[in-house]
Fold this sequence. Notes:
The chain is mostly beta strands. The strands form two sheets. A five-stranded antiparallel beta sheet has the order 1-2-3-4-5, with no helix packed on it. A five-stranded antiparallel beta sheet has the order 6-7-8-9-10, with no helix packed on it. The chain contains two helices and ten strands. The N and C termini lie close together (12 Å). The protein has one domain (6-137).
Amino acid sequence: MCLTNSVRVKIGTGPHKNVAETTEVALRLKSIDVQLLRNWVVMVDGKAVSLPYVHKSISVEQQMGVILLNTQLGIKMQWNSRGRLELSLPNLYWGQLCGLCGNFNGKPHDDQTLRTLEPAHSDAQFGTSWQVSLELPSHSTLHSQDPHSRH
């Protein structure tokens, strides 16, 4: 079962145009949208914010060459604004995830599933299945667009 909160990562090419890297990260949590962009730019609900930024459900700061995003739900992101992204989650998400990071159930052999939750037959099929626009859907359409949401 996949959760309805959303993390989207945009992959682009690096300065040499022959290396793929993370160029943008978007996070949707209930009623807040956060985008981490290159050059240490952070957008919250479509507006650029200064760091450190604290909101009732998130905090974002720049520290030792990375942007740190912490949420009240225990989700933590570290991004170096050039390509390296690290996402850590508390155990309460165990077995409730899907997508490019796997399903977080401790069984790496079943991590590569398609959006339909069927096993992928190749890396290319797996990656293509999860390809999306970086634009986050509106809050009113998030649940209706998510094929794995609980009704």
